[in-house]
């Protein structure tokens, strides 16, 4: 991770437990992190936590929604003018919806698919324009490999779309001989911040952040295009 020290990372879905864990891990590894969230108040505690003298200049917040194109464009402009050039993008925003209404389906697809498309497109445009050998990591889900009963409706379908998007972009970048931008689909199994007695074992947010650090720590000559992580105990 040493080569990333001082670099700028952009994280969407920052108000989720995984988003907060990702921010902590990246800041601890010496990166400047800009979070995109529609609910800044949900990050108040994290702001206080990272407000120590050594970290206060490493965490910034942009208000906006990843599925709103104007919000993403404005965020990149603000980052360029106030923080620096983006080297790492973690597309973490995502939703699960159990009620099968058309409006909720649109909402899910807007965030899980369109939001990732917008953020990834702008990330790669930004990296190419600024000649940055950056890395885009799309937080996916194990259901893009195996549909499970725990994820209903079209959530699984939206994650298959993220897999296809990531693979397609990887192929497009590979055709560009001078491009060293890397893209990764990271697919964790079920995640819970804390387990209650008797509950089935799941991954913790820290397991996901450890996987992100693993991906970012790979040699520049290596691209981890797909990584799936599951808890050792069998998931049901």
From TrEMBL:
One of its GO terms (molecular function) is oxidoreductase activity. It comes from the Eukaryota. Signal peptide: none annotated. Coiled coil: none annotated. Keywords: Oxidoreductase. Pfam families: adh_short. Transmembrane segments: none annotated. Belongs to the short-chain dehydrogenases/reductases (SDR) family. PANTHER family: DEHYDROGENASE/REDUCTASE SDR FAMILY MEMBER 11, DEHYDROGENASE_REDUCTASE SDR FAMILY MEMBER 11. This is Dehydrogenase/reductase SDR family member 11. It comes from Diabrotica balteata (Banded cucumber beetle). The lineage of its organism: Eukaryota, Metazoa, Ecdysozoa, Arthropoda, Hexapoda.
């Amino acid at each position: 991770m040493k080569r990333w020290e001082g670099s700028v990372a952009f994280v969407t879905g920052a108000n989720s437990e995984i988003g907060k864990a990702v921010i902590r891990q990246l800041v601890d590894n010496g990166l400047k992190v800009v979070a995109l969230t529609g609910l800044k108040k949900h990050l108040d505690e994290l702001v206080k936590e990272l407000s120590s003298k050594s970290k206060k200049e490493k965490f910034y917040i942009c208000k906006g929604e990843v599925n709103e194109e104007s919000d993403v464009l404005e965020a990149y402009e603000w980052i360029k003018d106030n923080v620096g050039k983006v080297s790492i993008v973690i597309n973490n925003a995502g939703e699960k919806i159990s009620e099968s209404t058309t409006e909720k389906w649109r909402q899910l697809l807007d965030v899980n698919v369109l939001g990732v498309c917008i953020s990834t497109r702008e990330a790669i445009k930004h990296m190419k324009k600024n000649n940055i050998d950056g890395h885009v990591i799309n937080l996916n889900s194990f259901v893009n490999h195996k549909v499970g009963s725990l994820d209903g409706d079209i959530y699984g379908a939206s994650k298959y779309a993220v897999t296809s998007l990531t693979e397609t972009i990887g192929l497009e970048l590979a055709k560009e001989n001078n491009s060293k931008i890397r893209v990764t689909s990271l697919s964790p199994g079920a995640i819970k911040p804390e387990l209650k007695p008797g509950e089935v074992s799941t991954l913790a947010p820290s397991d996901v952040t450890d996987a992100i650090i693993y991906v970012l720590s790979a040699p520049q000559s290596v691209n981890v295009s797909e990584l799936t992580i599951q808890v050792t105990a069998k998931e049901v």
